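SAMPLE LOG
Freezer: B-3
Tube label: C17
Construct: single chain, 290 aa
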Amino acid sequence: PPSAPSLSPGTSIPPSPRCWHHGLSQEPGARWTEPGCRSCTCQEGRVLCDAVSCSTPCSHPLPAPAGGCCPTCTGCLHEGVARAEGDVFSLSNGNCTVCVCLAGNVSCLSPECPPGSCPSPSPSDCCSCHPAKCSFRGRTYAHGARFSLDGDGCTTCVCQGGEVECSFAPCPILDCPQHQRHLRPGQCCSSCRDPPAPTGCFLDDNGVEFPVGQLWSPGDPCELCICQADGSVSCRRTECLETCPYPIRIPGQCCPDCSAGCTYMGRVFSNNETFPSELDPCLSCICLVR
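STRUCTURE (predicted):
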């Protein structure tokens, strides 16, 4: 690295220049605070400013004093009230909790009452009171006791500081119509009746009701339906396996009859019957059932 320039004997270092800021002269290295909490310094004739950085090492600091920028820990601000250093105070709810302000921090202590007692409004004796008992319908109940009204379990009561509060047990929401709801003996809430067993099958299209086990054809002779025990309708189709070229079709019968004769050009002929052809009078036809 290059060596620092040497000074000849009798040569002096020139002083750092002063700073001019807002019409005022500032010494080199001077520090000051401007309005708006900006910290400025004079360095080599230049003014350098930055926002004041506050470090608050306490939980309940007091607001910055007039002309200051940072909160102070020489007291406490608790629930909107300024407290002096070392101040001992009680909370506004009066539950015997005692607090102290130390270096901007608030520490609170609450009394530990033994079982069966409760905090008292008096700070000198916070655990002297005892919860009042309840007298209800000729019986006495301790504070916090729960019991059912008339022993039916439909109403729950509780003893709170000498007063009895009762409320009805909530009932579930039923998804059945009103005429199917009923209240059974010894129960608090209604329940749904079981739907009646179906006695038959009701067909909405024609309003006819068939009894359970009834067979019928809905209009197609190849389809047969039956009324099931649960009120549903089950239908099946009949598949015709025997076929022939000229069967006889009987009205109301599903499958054509190939054993009774032949149907030819709209006429019915019996087995082994001979007849002239409608297409050619020189041809003779015979009906053969095979």
